[in-house]
Amino acid sequence: MSTASYNCPCCGGPLKFSGESGKLECTACGNSYEPEALEMMTHEESGDEITFANDAKRFDTGEAGMRAYLCKNCGAELMTEDTTTAAECPYCGSPTILPDRIEGGVKPEKVIPFVVTKEQAQKQFEDYFKGKKLLPNVFLNSRNRISEMRRLYVPYWLFSCDACADMVYDAEKVCTEQKGEWEITRTKHYLVRRRGGMRFENIPVDGSVKMDDKLTESLEPYDLSAAIPFQSAVLAGAMADHADADCDACEKRAVERSVEQTMLDTVRDYDTVNERSRRIVTERGSATPALLPVWLMTTVKEGKTYTFAVNGQTGKLTCDVPADKKKSLLWGGGVFAGVFGVAALILALMDALGSGSLLIGAMAAIIIALAVVGALKGQLKQAAQQSAAGGYVREGSFRLDVNADHFLYESTTKRKIENNTQKK
């Protein structure tokens, strides 16, 4: 026979239920807790139930006007009109593509035509190198030329479903004040629960194994209302890859990215929020294969290939160009020195110069320096894995069934502040 016990989240002491207050009370520190809050803390995380009904129509390579190819170098599956000559693989750059027969692939149902022209994409590439403070010198020492440029339709899965989520978070509110020679920090600890439902529509997930997820996710969003039914004529003059990423492997990540962001957006007015547990259940799921437009460009510097991608509908650009480490350190160090120097001068004029005040000034300088370097890195438009994908909830479908914020306890820390007056 199993047993259960409850311990105080603050001090770890045993809790007892008080019939008078209707709460669990700690005999050691005196804190009391609502039973529901303690049940939430022992809430077991269960496996997410995500099931989609997929229409597994296969792409017939014998369809009029279409040919399928298999790159002998990297294995990428490509489809183009039979009038298109493939001079190179858009993924590995192989100069030849052999027209081997592909057994078939998932037939796309939707396609977004290219809106951004080749000239506009080229201008995006040329303008990228202007005004970037952390751009590596290798891009500044010589003219940047496009080595290869490819007009590519990337396969995506568009997921739709009804989702129900039950999320529990640890949250904190922090308040710091100064009393005399002491700096006092009070932290209020909360347990937050959100449970609700929503309808997601057309959550996009890259369906190509060869394409870097960082690139494709950084190119979002697409305006899917502009998608048209798939027709082979749209592929004229472009390459298109079959969806070779398993649909079942993509669906969980698609829904989780959107559910997590949607539910987290309802937790407000806290200084820190961390997920404790979750349960996500979906139903009425479906997956629609689609082709979305991307311009892929590469440039070679000192033997290394750098990739640039432009959203073929919106013109949004992303790339894998890194920030120059030396420049990042110089900018960060310069900003820190400047801010800290000004802070120290102000404190000296106020006769408040001391180890405590200098520490606060140094922390402020570090935060500002990191913010400046972060902003400069943002100019580089580096591709990054997106942990959240909001904006795919059908308008009016979101409902919040449980909106509970439980105060647990308050912790206090004190730090003595030293200054020149005290030392004298």
Helix content: 10-25%
Q: In terms of per-residue confidence, which ranges show pLDDT below 50 for 5 or more consecutive residues? A: 45-64, 81-88, 95-104
* Rounded radius of gyration (Å): 28 Å
User: Beta-strand level of the residues, as a percent range?
Assistant: 35-45%
Straight-line distance between termini: 68 Å
The main sheet comes to:
12 strands, mixed
Q: What pattern of helices and strands is seen along the backbone? A: EEEHEEEEEEHEEHEEHEEEHHEH
Q: Total number of β-strand segments?
A: 17
Write the layout of secondary structure elements.
Blueprint: E1 15-18, E2 23-26, E3 32-33, H1 35-41, E4 52-54, E5 58-59, E6 66-70, E7 77-81, E8 105-106, E9 110-111, H2 118-128, E10 148-179, E11 182-206, H3 213-218, E12 228-229, E13 239-241, H4 247-264, E14 272-301, E15 304-311, E16 317-319, H5 325-349, H6 355-378, E17 399-416, H7 420-423
Parallel strand pairs: 4-14, 9-14, 10-13
Antiparallel strand pairs: 1-2, 2-3, 5-8, 6-7, 7-13, 9-12, 10-11, 10-14, 11-17, 14-15, 15-16
